[in-house]
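[agent] plan:
  1. take the single chain provided in the ticket
  2. run structure prediction with default settings
  3. attach structure tokens to the ticket
  4. add a short note for the reviewer (M.T.)
[agent] executing step 1
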Amino acid sequence: MGTVFSFAVRDPSPAVDEALREAVARLHAIDALFSPYREESELSRVARGELALADADPELAEVLERCREVETETDGWFTACPGGRLDPSGWVKGWAVNEACALLCRAGSTEHCVNGGGDIQSVGGPWRIGIADPARPRKLAAVLAGRDLVVATSGTAERGAHVVNPHSGEAATDLLSLTLVTNGPGRLARTDAWATAVFAMGPERGLAWAERQPTLEALAILPDGTRLATNGFLRFAG
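[agent] step 2 finished; step 3 output follows
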């Protein structure tokens, strides 16, 4: 997926060790199916019209349906076709992390954290999770603390200005980074997709949207270094 995945497990066991191997295999399988950079992936073949969606892996249709839900929830600020190209990565990465977590939970782990390129689903805790400062390499903008933390960040630090404003078709550049945080198992896929949408919205519209979502908090960092947050963000401060 063009990024690094990592696992922190506090309650290892033979069953959890096996689940870790299954999780890595599951991540590679998801990448092979959904990568927009692999010409042979089913996603790429559907995008080129070589494969009908009805004949593709059922998970592809399911993911695209979830993307349509998020598009509705965000008034069109999230799309599975950024720039007119089929690419549901804004949902897939967070969903892949959730899939890995589910395997660990089924193996009996109640204390673990899976990080997919800075998007994090934790189970148990408490955990302390740092938010990278996009303007200062190897520095932190904030530290979050809590149980079952879900943290999703969209920004320019790792991949440059890659988030597209779906209404204008241009790169979204009003923010350096946007982090959403909440609690609960299996919530990263939607939170990660929302983070992409809120980043595209920009600081004023995006933070107003985040304020309206129950249990969700946000931290925005502007190009000049200014930090803006939703009213309840400090309850997660570590």
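[agent] step 4 note for reviewer: The helical segments are 14-34, 42-47, 58-73, 89-106, 188-201, 203-211.
[agent] ticket updated
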